[in-house]
Amino acid sequence: FTFINLQNLMYLDLNSNQISIIELNAFKGLAKLFMLYLYHNKIKYIKNGYFLDLENLNRLELYSNTIEFIEENSFKNLRRLDYLDISNNILNRFESSTFKSMRFLKKLLLKGNRLFNLNIEIDFSILESVHLNFNILKFIQNNSFSRFINLKVLE
Description:
Elements: E1 11-13, E2 35-37, E3 45-46, E4 59-61, E5 69-70, E6 83-85, E7 107-109, E8 117-118, E9 129-131, E10 139-140, E11 153-154
Parallel strand pairs: 1-2, 2-4, 3-5, 4-6, 6-7, 7-9, 8-10, 9-11
């Protein structure tokens, strides 16, 4: 557990490094962490168990990595997250339940990936901004945005 003795840490910035693998439970003990920046690294996968103890995390930035795959339930403990940026990766799909537990998410950035199909059928009544531009979208499931009643920006 890399950060086990830093239980009061609220801000962690590891951007612009060479991180390619995140160990399971790497962030264990960081229950007060509010912001986590992992952008401009070489992360390929987001797996269930990476963000287990981060129930107070508000902002997660994973843009400009080489993320190909997000394992189902990887974000399930991030219930207070309101900003998630996974832009500029090589993500081509995700499960419709990937963002299921994020009831406070206001801004979701998925631009600049390789998404070709969009199927988000979950209740994002608080979501205000979704960024999907610069993908290769060919199909958007009917009613994909029907529950996004507060949506102000759709790119």
